[in-house]
Amino acid sequence: MDVIYIVGPVLLIAISLAAVWLDRWSVPVILVALGAGILFGSDVLGLWHFDDIGLTNKVANLALVFILFNGGFSTKRSDFKAVALPAGGLATWGVVLTAVATFGVLYGLFNWALDKALLLAAIISSTDAAAIFSILRRQPLPPKLSSTLEIESAANDPMAILLTTAVIEMITSAQSSWLMSVPLFVWRFAVGPVSGWFLATAALWLFNRVKPQDRGHYYVLSLATIPLIYGLTEMINGSGMLAVFVGGYLMGNRPFIHKQGVTNFSSAISTVVNVGMFALMGLQVFPRQWGGIWLEGIPLFLILTLFARPFAVWLGTIGMG
After folding, report:
1. pTM of the model
2. What is the CATH T-level fold of the domain 57-316, as seen in this structure?
3. d(CA 187, CA 100)
4. Of 172, 196, 243, 267, which one has the fewest beta carbons inside 10 Å?
5. What is the DSSP string of 282-303?
6. Which residues in the chain land under pLDDT 70?
7. Hey, what long-range contacts does 14-23 have (CB within 8 A, 24 or more apart)?
8. What CA–CA distance (Å, rounded) separates 40 from 15?
9. How many CA within 13 A on the CB side of residue 137?
């Protein structure tokens, strides 16, 4: 018998029990899931050997689609209007400034090669939407601050992709090639919201026209609609992540049949995929390989957390209230 049918459920139960117990110390469930995944992995308890970066990436991407949709779904129109400017600034210039500060540390302090320093700085320059939404779900913040963080984490995808693509192209090809990524960034940032708005409007029309006897069909429609918004937007090179957030925002601020049920379903599936994604990432971590990286990894983490990101946030929101 495949051990996944035993180890998998035990892992999820362990995460749930540990999260409840650690809640008194305000430990986010994503850290519990990540730690449990590492603990169950091949380098610690050895209960589940998992080493498939490609599958992990696909699962994490799909999970993020549902997480971002739920984040948009729960964002009120009044909150969105109040924070659109600072959130947009953080999603663009904030990402760039974080990348610049991180590059300075890697290249100037750790003496990394120019190309490697640029690439890693671009990759880790954006905030993680899954982590942001998970923390905000259990740590209430002032509405303006909470909405700013939610919108920024959903909208920084195009800029992060632009930076990473530009660096890769700059390393591997001529300058003219990476300059071509600028129009792609503009296209992704512009098409994503428009596509999300249009497809969510179509979804609302469908929800209000289909009236099945079994209301469970509305959950099936939700389960299909959310990744469809992402997939169709990505097919035309728009930002799928931005599209699902905008789509969720539109549906969350419009009335439709069985909205309360869909609200509960969206929140529940967001929690499930969030836990599963970080547990899977934990399984992908191998502590025995940390020996050569922790001396640089820990200082980089501290500098990024205590200096680079706060500096970028401060500089990117000057004069925005």
Report:
1. 0.82
2. Na+/H+ antiporter like fold (1.20.1530)
3. 24
4. 172
5. HHT--GGGGGGTHHHHHHHHHH
6. 1, 128-140, 154, 157-158, 162, 169, 173-181, 319-321
7. 14/40, 15/275, 15/279, 23/138
8. 11
9. 23
